[in-house]
Design brief:
The complex is a heterodimer of chains A (264) and B (438). Chain A is built from ten helices and eight strands. With 264 residues, chain A is an alpha+beta fold. In chain A, helix 2 runs antiparallel to helix 3 and helix 2 packs antiparallel against helix 4. Classes of the chains: A alpha+beta (264), B alpha/beta (438).
Chain lengths: 264, 438
């Protein structure tokens, strides 16, 4: 008989405490703002950290408290930016989707070397020593520090060892651009059709000695194909989509003697 | 057998390899065809170049002026003409402007040879002279001497410790200097003592240089200098100021502090000798003793070379390469910088040039087995294995919070690591990235 008493006692205490909790929950609860909940639900939840905040909900909260701008979330893109501005009642400009791109077309092991490096396999460590073992001091090092930080595994390596970005997987967070010690990997608008895959400002004759693919700054793309959008500054061509016509750009693609102008 | 003092925590015993160049006296090298003087030879801001292409310079003339508080003057080591100003990369990967001077003749002039009596100068005047002469610490860190010797008001110097340890393997530049210029070094110490006014002067020398201890003791007894010579047990990195102070005075420098904060000043014997020359002969710092050694050098030795001499000229003076080297190092093998270009000029801090080939294939890098050998070897008391894992995984802020900045890159951890992990290199990278991320 005495065994029943503790059971009953526990049941009564449990009931009382449960009742207390139920009252506390309804009376003392902090109401979460609907706007914040709605924003949190519309985040892409990639938690990439590209916005500079600890995660998606941290960014949503910062926007909600007016501590961050709308439009920092690259994976969410324009859709999210517009939705957030609608929720918050702020006007936002149209956001352009961006993707990462490696501005070096050389296979790292094919470029001429100053010395043999056999230390830590990390681009940042390699650049501390004479900016890397290669004669080209501005090209891709090839140890893949960008690959390590990519949250989506969008940065890949060809069988020869050249690093490239798989555009279909890239969410545009921009983490790789911060990891690269030489800024070889940079963001370009996703709509851009052509790029100059070289980062070296070295003079042509010098560059030819150690690299087979780099831009020599000959200026053919600029002079022969007006309106192509290609301009050469300090021995390196660059492309701007704004003042480019498709025909001229195609022509420049065909006349580049080093084939360093590439179609994305 | 006397009991030798040393520091307690950590340390390693690399093979000292000093026999290669120990017997060689200091030889002056023949004047090179070209001298390349970098404007960044010291810790702190690079000197501002005050000459132009085409200008003529005299031996000992000021060519670079200290540009900020922590900076140093630079003087021309030869009489000649400035033929070019170009960018050079030094052995420590620093890129900076450099003057290329073509010496005019093998000048055997007798300037800087009439001695002046320093006792007539006050300590301020001496300090000013030290500043003008462009003196920097010649042990390797190249900290400007005038900053080191400026004792702030309210601080007292208890110990002046002269560093004759030279714990790096291969190097014998300080050893030969101590052997040949014993009296001059002691006179230099007395000059520095006049500037900073210490209570005690001590000279630390490692047990593999007992002949120097005897030489110093003999002169000290004869002249009656208040200097105590302390023979120390052989142990790397005893030549670091933190370990040397612990060994000779028992005092420990707290994290992030300087020797002056615990009432001490440490000077390398090479610097002391340069100070003696600067004050007594008015000769600015423009030449130094460099050890050229390693198993690829035909005749390893110690050479007195003008600062700005190219490495190839030094190697030629040492009889050239006997074998093709696999690795070139500026400084000692433990803390020196690996470099590749034989046209690299030497600087005020270059104590040695080593050309080494490996008898065996370097061992393969494997995974950390958590044996703790690096923890036992670290003279600071850090946990290299933990720091390495943090840096490898990109947690730079956490590594900084685990006292990464206290690491002085002595290399004891990497030396003792059975997995051959590039620990010091990882720490260098971690410091660089950690500082940016902050």
């Amino acid at each position: 008989m005495s065994i029943i008493i503790p059971f009953v006692l526990i049941a009564v205490i449990g009931g009382l405490l449960g009742f207390g909790l139920a009252i506390a929950d309804s009376k003392l609860s902090v109401k979460k703002d609907e706007k914040l909940t709605e924003m949190e639900n519309s985040m892409p939840n990639a938690n990439c950290g590209g916005c500079g905040f600890a995660g998606c909900s941290a960014y949503a909260e910062a926007v909600f408290n007016h501590k961050a701008e709308i439009g920092l979330c690259a994976p969410g893109g324009n859709d999210l930016a517009q939705k957030m501005s609608q929720i918050m009642g702020i006007k936002t400009e149209v956001m352009e989707k961006k993707v990462a791109h490696v501005f070096c077309s050389a296979v790292p092991s094919n470029v001429g070397k100053d010395f043999d490096y056999n230390g830590l396999e990390d681009c940042n460590a390699a650049t501390i020593l004479f900016k890397g073992e290669k004669k080209c001091k501005e090209g891709c090092i090839g140890f893949g520090s960008c690959m390590k930080v990519c949250p989506e595994g969008a940065i890949k390596r060809t069988p020869e060892g050249k690093i490239y970005v798989d555009v279909s997987l890239c969410i545009g967070c921009g983490k790789c651009t911060k990891a690269c010690p030489l800024q070889v990997i940079r963001m370009i608008p996703a709509s851009q059709k052509y790029t100059v895959d070289c980062n070296s400002h070295e003079k042509g004759p010098n560059l030819r000695k150690y690299c087979e693919t780099g831009c020599i700054g000959c200026g053919i793309c600029e002079k022969k194909c007006p309106g192509s959008g290609f301009t050469v500054t300090s021995f390196l061509a660059s492309y701007s989509e704004k003042d480019s016509t498709k025909e001229a750009a195609q022509q420049a693609l065909a006349c580049c003697p080093r084939k360093v102008i590439k179609e994305v | 057998m006397p009991k030798f003092l040393t520091f307690k925590k950590g340390g390693v015993h690399p093979d000292d390899m000093k026999a290669l160049s120990k017997g060689s006296p200091i030889q002056r090298i023949t004047m090179p065809k070209e001298i390349v003087i970098s404007m960044s030879q010291h810790l702190g801001a690079p000197a501002a170049c005050i000459k132009q292409k085409g200008d003529s310079v005299r031996k000992g003339e000021l060519i670079g002026e200290a540009s900020s508080f922590i900076s140093a003057n630079i003087h021309s080591p030869v009489s000649g003409k400035i033929v070019d100003i170009r960018k050079v990369t030094l052995a420590n990967s620093v890129s900076c402007d450099a003057l290329v001077i073509e010496p005019e003749s093998d000048d055997d002039d007798t300037s800087f040879e009439s001695p002046i009596d320093y006792t007539g100068f006050s300590s301020e005047e001496l300090l000013q002279k030290v500043k003008e002469s462009g003196l920097v610490g010649m042990g390797g860190a190249t900290f400007p001497m005038n900053v080191k010797l400026s004792v702030p008001i309210g601080k007292k110097v208890d110990y002046l410790v002269l560093n004759g340890v030279e714990c790096e393997p291969y190097l014998t530049a300080d050893y030969t200097l101590m052997k040949e210029k014993t009296e001059e070094i002691l006179l230099g110490a007395m000059i520095i003592a006049r500037i900073v006014n210490p209570k005690f002067i001590k000279l630390g020398i490692e047990a593999n240089k007992m002949d120097c201890v005897a030489l110093f003791n003999e002169v000290i007894e004869r002249k009656g200098y208040p200097i105590e010579v302390i023979p120390l047990k052989m142990k790397y990195p005893q030549g670091d100021e933190k370990q040397l102070l612990k060994a000779t005075t028992g005092r420990e420098i707290p994290s992030g502090k300087l020797p002056l904060d615990i009432g001490s000043i440490v000077c390398n014997v090479g610097t002391v000798y340069a100070t003696y020359q600067a004050i007594t002969f008015g000769k600015p710092l423009f030449e130094r003793v460099v050890t050229v050694s390693g198993n690829c050098i035909s005749k390893p030795g110690n050479f007195l070379a003008p600062i700005g001499t190219k490495v190839c000229d030094l190697i030629e003076a040492a009889g050239g390469f006997a074998f093709e080297p696999e690795k070139l190092i500026s400084g000692g093998p433990m803390m020196g910088f690996s470099f590749w270009d034989l046209d690299t000029p030497i600087t005020k801090g270059t104590s040695g040039i080593l050309a080494i080939r490996f008898d065996e294939k370097p061992a393969r890098q494997t995974n950390c087995i958590h044996c703790g050998k690096c923890v036992a070897a670290c003279p600071i008391g850090l946990e290299p294995t933990r720091l390495y894992n943090l840096i490898k995984n990109g947690k730079y802020a956490a590594a900084m919070a685990t006292d990464l900045m206290d690491c002085k890159e002595c290399g004891c951890c990497a030396f003792s690591c059975p997995a051959h992990l590039p620990l010091v290199q990882a720490f260098r990278m971690g410091k660089k990235l950690g500082r940016v991320k902050k």
